[in-house]
Amino acid sequence: MQRLLYYDCFAGISGDMNLGALIHLGVDPEYLKTELKKLNIEGFSLEIKRDKRRGISGIKAEVVIQNPENEKHRHLHHIESLINNSELSAKVKCTALNIFKQVAVAEAKVHDIPVEKVHFHEVGALDSIADIVGAAICLDYLKVDKIMASPVQLGGGTVKCAHGIMPVPAPATAEILKNIPVKTGLVQYEATTPTGAAILAATVSEFTSLMHFDIQKTGYGLGTIDTEVPNVLRVFLAEVNDDDVELIQNDATLLECNIDDLSPENYELVMDLLFDAGASDVWMENIIMKKSRPGIKLSVLCIPSDAKRIKEILFIHTTTIGLRENTVKKNALSRTEITVNIQWGEVRVKQSFYGGKVVNTKPEFEDCKQLALTHKVPIEMIKKAVYKSLENESK
C-alpha cells in the first residue's frame, strides 16, 4: 500500500488554506510552530482556529505580521539564504526552495528579467515565507508517497497586485500553472493565489479529476472570504494498492473528424504535424459517410493543454470544417527506459510494469533500424540480440 495526498482544488488554493487543510488532516500545529521558529526570523506568529464556511467545519490558519509597516521586500537570494541557514531538515529546505523557485521563474518570465533580479512582492513578505516553508514542513510531517491534485479553480473577476488591477488569474499565477489543468468562473474573486499555485506546481506529480483510491481522512482549510460556494480547500489522505499506483491515470482530450475529400498523400504530413504538436496518439479508420461516400475518421488523443494547437492543425491542414471533442480517462502502465548494449551498439528499451513485474518490453525501433543499416544485418537479428541480453541479465 502507498500513502497519497490528494488536493481537491474545487474552490482554489492559497497558502493559508493549504496550511489549514493539512493541519485539519493531522499535522500537529505545535510541531509546525516549533519548526517555523527554526527560520530564526521575528515579526510573525501563526494563529490557528476552528471555524466554518457555509456550514463546513475546518481550520483557519493565519500568519499574523506584528509590524506590517516595517515589512521588507526580498530577492530570491535573501530567501535562499534564510532557508539554507536555518535548522530545518534538508528535505524541508529542498521543498521550500523549489516552491519559491516556481514563483521566481514565473515573475522573471512576466517581467522579462533574470531570475536573480526578481524583486519579490507578495512572496517576499513574512506571511508568504511562513506559508511556503510551513507547507514544506507539513508535507514532510505527513510522510506521503505521492501527491496528486484535481484541476485547479482560478476564480474570476479582477485582482489588485503589483502590476495594477489585472483579470484573474494574476500574471504570475497563470505562468506557474502553465501545462496544469485549470478551471475558471466558479466565483468572482481570486480563488488561487501565486503561493497556492506554486505549492501545487512544485509538489504534485499528477493532476487528475479521477480519484481511484481509498480515502482514509479528509481535511478542510478555510479561506477568508465566505461566499455561496464554500471557500475551502479539501484534501484527502488516502491509500492505494501498489498495483493501482502502477496505472498512470490522467484526463485526455479526444478530437475526431470525418473527412472524405483529402488526398491520401496528405495524411502523412498531417500525422507528422499532429505528433510534433504533442499528440500522444493519432489513428485513422475507414468509414462510410452520408450518401454512402467512403471516408476517413481521423482521431487524435492529447493532453488537454495541447488541444488548441491540435485543433488548429486539423482545421488548417485538412479539409474538415468541424470536429468532435470529448474528455476521456486515459490509463497507462508505468514505464521506464533502459539502454542495452549488444555487439553492434546500444539500443534503448522501454519496459512497462504491472503488479511489480515487467509485462511488456519493446526495443526502440529507430535504434534497431540504425544499427541494422550501419552493420548490414537483419533488424530482427538486432531485436533478438536485445531480448537475449535482457534474458541473460535477469538470470
In short:
With 395 residues, this protein is an alpha+beta fold. It contains 12 helices and 17 strands.
Plain-language structure description:
- A hairpin with a 2-residue loop joins strand 2 (44-53) and strand 3.
- The longest helix has 22 residues, at 90-111.
- The chain has three domains: 2-245, no CATH class; 248-322, Alpha-Beta Plaits (2-Layer Sandwich), CATH 3.30.70; 334-394, no CATH class.
- The chain is an alpha+beta fold and 395 residues long.
- The protein has helices spanning 15-25, 29-36, 76-84, 90-111, 126-142, 171-176, 194-203, 242-245, 267-276, 307-317, 365-375, 379-394; strands at residues 2-8, 44-53, 56-65, 146-149, 152-153, 158-161, 164-167, 182-183, 206-207, 214-222, 232-240, 247-259, 281-288, 294-302, 324-342, 345-354, 357-363.
- The protein is globular.
The number of distinct β-strands equals 17
Q: Give the proportion of residues in helices.
A: 25-40%
Number of domains: 3
The averaged pLDDT comes out at 90
Apparent shape: globular
